Amino acid sequence: MTAAQVTLSLQRLIEAAQATVAAHAEELTALDQAIGDGDHGHNMVRGFTAMQAAAAEIAAQPFGKALHKAGMTLVMKVGGASGPLYGSLLMAMGKAREDAPTDSAALAAVVQAGVEAVKARGKSDAGAKTMLDVLVPVQAALAEGGGIAAVRSAADAGLAATKPMLATKGRASFLGERSIGHLDPGARSCALLVHAVCDVLEEE
Amino acid sequence: MTDTVSIVIVSHSAEVAKGAADMVRQMVGEEVRVAFCGGNSEGGLGTDVAAILEAIQAVYSSKGVAVLVDLGGAETNSEMAIEMLPEGESENVRICNAPIVEGAVMAATEAAGGSSLTAVCATAEDFQS
């Protein structure tokens, strides 16, 4: 992939991410109203709209610096815990690699660095009804050399698995047993973003 | 003047943050520096990393800064802000695991006596039990 192609991809990825977040804002908010504080959709739109506004500037940077800047934009703009969580994901991915990964093993390593950062930031892991229930299986699918279809189904299965889970992290944990039976809004936004990335990769 | 630990109050609500800071000032006085912030960057409920960073830096003391937070995102965003401080300052800033209003008053009372950051946080955290 040439530098110009990477720039183009990053810009398309940001546009696709913003579009999916905006299109599903009400759904994310409704999920968050059930088990959180009802601001996830609005917060994500604020963050990704700011990222979109800076897309040209972000995409002009090499891969590592671009992801760092994109992550920092979310940290500064989202206004809820998802800002530092998604921000740390992108910043750690950017820190893991200066240039865009060119094969699936390198991509799996980059995503692994991001997932570890989310675990550290959230003091959590898969199984607690959070975005990690999507991220961890997605990373595992990548590490196993799975293609786009495998990544998509890992995201969907991970998201679906949050429904019967008891939340032990974040606001939803205050609800205890009542958190059972609802999809986790963070896992939902994460699955949406995974699909958006897959859509862009499929176009190319 | 900067010989005491400072207090930073971070709430999802600007009014809660201001109210807690007012209580600290009235009950403890002016010798402990208190900063507060609340609300997201659009003025709605939430927390804002940039505002937290600004609040910490406004009252930063090498003696230490105790940060009191309310719910989830306030803690995550405060942790992020602390990591973003200039090199050498982060280790002097700590989040107290205590209720925001009572914790802020207890922390400031302890700080007014010239106690260390560890003692200030311990006093605020003990109040829970």
Describe the structure.
The complex is a heterodimer of chains A (204) and B (129). In chain A, 71% of the residues lie in helices and 0% in strands. Chain A has helices at residues 3-23, 25-35, 40-53, 55-59, 63-77, 82-96, 104-122, 132-143, 148-161, 185-203. Helix content of chain B is 47%, strand content 16%. Chain B has helices at 14-28, 49-58, 72-83, 100-112, 117-126; strands at 6-11, 34-38, 65-69, 93-96. Chain B has a four-stranded parallel beta sheet, sandwiched between helices. In chain B, β3, α3 and β4 form a beta-alpha-beta unit. In chain B, α2 packs across α3 (72-83). The longest helix of chain B has 15 residues, at 14-28. Chains A and B meet through α3, α5 and α6 of A and α3 of B.
Task: Map the helices and strands.
The complex is a heterodimer of chains A (204) and B (129).
Chain A: H1 3-23, H2 25-35, H3 40-53, H4 55-59, H5 63-77, H6 82-96, H7 104-122, H8 132-143, H9 148-161, H10 185-203
Helix pairs in contact in A: 1-3, 1-10, 2-3, 2-10, 3-5, 5-6, 6-7, 7-8, 8-9, 8-10, 9-10
Chain B: E1 6-11, H1 14-28, E2 34-38, H2 49-58, E3 65-69, H3 72-83, E4 93-96, H4 100-112, H5 117-126
Helix pairs in contact in B: 1-4, 2-3, 4-5
* Sheet with most strands: strand arrangement of chain B: 2-1-3-4
> Could you give the order of the helices and strands of chain B?
EHEHEHEHH
Count the DSSP helices of chain B: 5
Terminal-residue CA separation of chain A: 11 Å
Radius of gyration of chain B: 13 Å
Q: Give the N-to-C terminal Cα separation of chain B.
A: 32 Å
Low-pLDDT runs of 5+ residues of chain B are none
Largest interface, with Cβ-Cβ < 8 Å?
A-B, 21 and 19 residues
| Percent helix range of chain B | 40-55%
Radius of gyration of chain A: 16 Å
